[in-house]
Amino acid sequence: MVNTVFLINSILLGVGLAMDAFSVSMANGLNEPHMSARKVLLIAATFAFFQAFMPMTGWLCVHTIVNLFTAFETVIPWIAFGLLGYIGGKMLLEGIKTDPEAPEVHQVNA
Q1: Long-range CB contacts for residues 57-60, cutoff 8 Å, separation at least 24
Q2: Which listed site, 48, 62, 66, 72, has its alpha carbon 20 to 30 Å from 34?
Q3: DSSP letters spanning 27-66
Q4: For residue 17, which phi and psi values (nearest 5 degrees)?
């Protein structure tokens, strides 16, 4: 059962990271449609490196200090919930709030 959950978690993490990289790559492609092949490969290699390196680094950090946090095991999800709720709420308020000093954005029709 644990291996199945780990596999599903790994697949979902991979899909989430791939969707994130895909959206950034699409934005780069739309911003610079005539990008050289060298630059395309450099961007793809950078994404591949960091998408492999960052989850492994996070896993390594968590597994090295997991014994320090066993006493807080029941509280950690609530701390994460509070932090993510605060960040999400702040983002929502910033999106709703109008800024009188913000520059005017003109829509471009392609």
Answers
A1: none
A2: 48
A3: HHHHH-TT--HHHHHHHHHHHHHHHHHHHHHHHHHHHHHG
A4: -65, -40
Asked whether 28 and 43 are in contact (CB, 8 A), the reply is: yes
The first and second tokens of residue 55, run together, are 């989850």
Query: Integer distance in angstroms from the first to the last C-alpha of the chain?
Result: 51
Best CA proximity match to 46, nearest among 64, 28, 62 = 28
Q: For 69, phi and psi rounded to 5 degrees?
A: -105, 15
Name the DSSP class of 81: H
